[in-house]
Amino acid sequence: MRLFSQAQFLRAVGHSRDLPPPELPEIAFAGRSNVGKSSAINALLGRRSLARTSKTPGRTQTINFYRLGEFAHLVDLPGYGFARVSKALRAQWGELVGGYLRSRASLVGVVVVMDARHPLTPLDQQLLGWLEGHRILVLLSKSDKLSRSEQASALAHVQRSLGAVPGAPQAMLFSSETRHGVDPLRGLLEAWLSESKPASEQAAEIKMPPVKGM
């Protein structure tokens, strides 16, 4: 917890030219709009509202950087799959996020947040394919909305499906309401950061096709 308790907002980036220098290892959070990504980040950091939450999908339109002391950055990527914005804005988001994921030398892993009740949507699966070569954790948010048997079933289904994804991403149940999964998530991300070797250095050149619906 000590690492994440040091989190401070650094900057919001709307254009790739404004990205901070890739001097520290970074972990990015990605997910569909209104899937609970910002709430998951706040729970991880032990804060109520450092990452802004909203019931309005598509609220996050920039890449938001949070500094974890002098050691790392946590990066909140814009939500994808929200239809009620212009095609031009979706294209801008896709270009911004795609450029970040494709070329960010300091990126050590990506947490893909999915609703435990509706995991692995077509857009989720497309993003997983887009992230081939990166270290990935699938975080099944809002797990408190499911019974224990439903949670077990959802996790097993996702784990089976992820077995066919290159690199075999991990999956974890999570609830920002009950804080279930918070400590295991912190432990895993601290392990990622302790390795301090960007996933981009471990993978071959990553070809990133356009993502529909960003």
What does this structure look like?
The chain is an alpha/beta fold. It has a single domain (4-202), classed as Rossmann fold. The protein has helices spanning 37-45, 87-103, 122-130, 148-162, 182-195, 199-202; strands spanning 7-13, 26-31, 63-68, 72-76, 107-115, 136-141, 170-173. A 7-stranded mixed beta sheet has the order 1-3-4-2-5-6-7, with helices on both faces. The longest helix has 17 residues, at 87-103. The chain starts with 6 loop residues before the first strand and ends in a 12-residue tail after the last helix.
Jot down its keywords.
single chain, 214 residues, Rossmann fold, 7-stranded mixed sheet, 7 strands, globular
Q: Tell me about the biggest sheet?
A: 7 strands, mixed
By secondary-structure content and strand pairing, the structural class works out as alpha/beta
Q: How many domain modules?
A: 1
Q: Per CATH, which architecture?
A: 3-Layer(aba) Sandwich
User: Which parts are unreliable, with pLDDT below 50 for 5 consecutive residues or more?
Assistant: 54-58, 198-211
| Element-by-element helix/strand order | EEHEEHEHEHEHH
Q: CATH topology, which one?
A: Rossmann fold
User: Distance N terminus to C terminus?
Assistant: 32 Å
Give me the side-by-side strand order of the main sheet: 1-3-4-2-5-6-7
Task: Please give the structural blueprint.
Blueprint: E1 7-13, E2 26-31, H1 37-45, E3 63-68, E4 72-76, H2 87-103, E5 107-115, H3 122-130, E6 136-141, H4 148-162, E7 170-173, H5 182-195, H6 199-202
Parallel strand pairs: 2-4, 2-5, 5-6, 6-7
Antiparallel strand pairs: 1-3, 3-4
